[in-house]
Design a protein that fits this description.
Layout lengths: L1 E6 L3 H15 L3 E5 L5 H14 L3 E5 L7 E5 L4 E5 L15 E6 L2 E7 L9 H18 L5 E6 L23 H9 L3 E2 H5 L26 E5 L1 H4 L2 E6 L15 E5 L31
Parallel strand pairs: 1-2, 7-8
Antiparallel strand pairs: 1-12, 2-4, 3-4, 5-6, 6-7, 8-10, 9-10, 11-12
Helix pairs in contact: 1-2, 3-4
The protein binds one DNA strand through loops.
DNA sequence: ATGGTTGGCTACCAA
């Protein structure tokens, strides 16, 4: 099963890139963030083409800002908007979280608050939001993956220059402590150990992508039973290239089939190659 | 030039 997560920075603007990308990468489960659309607008634009591609679709949006979605062709059940205890901002619940069970895994598509500035109320909101999420996830199923724009670089190796971020959000101790406190496996970092530099976001400004001055803030955090099934985990850097890209690249994670557990002897597969076998890691180094 | 871009929305704010 292939899971992908992508902050698209406006699903409407990304439509001409998103559909060909789905056909190329063929993810089974897709988590989208920053759709910036109402549910009605998302369904108007995407329901036809996504159904054509075989996806069930769930969207939680408010129009203009935020907005998250889940697409799946391996089942999409028990869809939940927001999470229990999710804090409000300025008196409103923002559309930053949606979850569903897909092929037995509880998948969360998350757009964590940016935090803006360490002195701002948005930063306090970010920390509260992550605390509440940890509590909700701990009370949920054991097979879980948090996917999305976490707006935290977990370690210094996840920013192009730690010195450039001193005093800024995304790299502070309290933010990193929240990511660690989930007690989950950062599956891309597990596959690309330090000091490998793997970024998922490059600011639009100042030619940052061209110079590879980025951050790794889009994460897939998986519980151990799910992490044990990871066959490949990488950032699809190619999707950040070319005309009118998002400022984020997708993260792609391939899982082997779930072990059958104690439901009896495993039936040997037929002679054709097993689906879900290890894929190569196509990330280029240009 | 003291973010140089992009996107939402239409005067700026957010990232």
């Amino acid at each position: 099963m292939r899971i992908a997560t992508w902050n698209v920075n406006s699903a409407k603007q990304r439509l001409p890139r998103l559909l060909p990308w789905l056909e190329e990468r063929r993810p089974d489960v897709v988590c989208l963030q920053e759709t910036k659309l109402s549910d009605a607008a998302f369904f108007d634009l995407f329901m036809g083409p996504l159904t054509q591609l075989g996806y069930e679709v769930a969207h939680h949006g408010q129009g203009g800002f935020n907005g998250v979605a889940l697409l799946s062709r391996v089942g999409l059940v028990d869809v939940e908007h927001n999470f229990p205890g999710q804090p409000d901002y300025l008196g409103a619940t923002e559309s930053r979280a949606i979850s569903a069970t897909c092929a037995g895994v509880r998948i969360h598509s998350l757009y964590v608050p940016n935090g803006r500035d360490v002195a701002s109320d948005h930063y306090a909101y970010k920390l509260e939001w992550l605390d509440a999420l940890a509590e909700a996830v701990a009370a949920g199923p054991a097979d879980v993956a948090l996917c999305g724009d976490m707006n935290v670089a977990p370690a210094d190796a996840d920013v192009f220059d730690p010195a450039a971020y001193v005093g800024h959000t995304h790299v502070t101790g309290p933010e990193r402590a929240r990511i660690a406190a989930f007690g989950l496996v950062d599956v891309v970092r597990a596959r690309w150990p330090e000091p490998e530099r793997v970024f998922s976001y490059w600011d639009y400004r100042a030619g940052m992508f061209h110079q590879d001055l980025g951050m790794r803030i889009d994460l897939v955090l998986a519980s151990q039973p799910v992490a044990d099934r990871v066959a490949a985990a990488w950032v699809d850097r190619a999707a950040r290239k070319g005309k009118l890209p998002s400022d984020h690249a997708p993260v792609i994670v391939d899982l082997d089939e779930a072990p059958d557990g104690d439901i009896g002897p495993v039936v040997p597969p037929p002679s054709n190659p097993r689906r879900g076998a290890r894929t190569r890691l196509p990330q280029s180094r240009d």
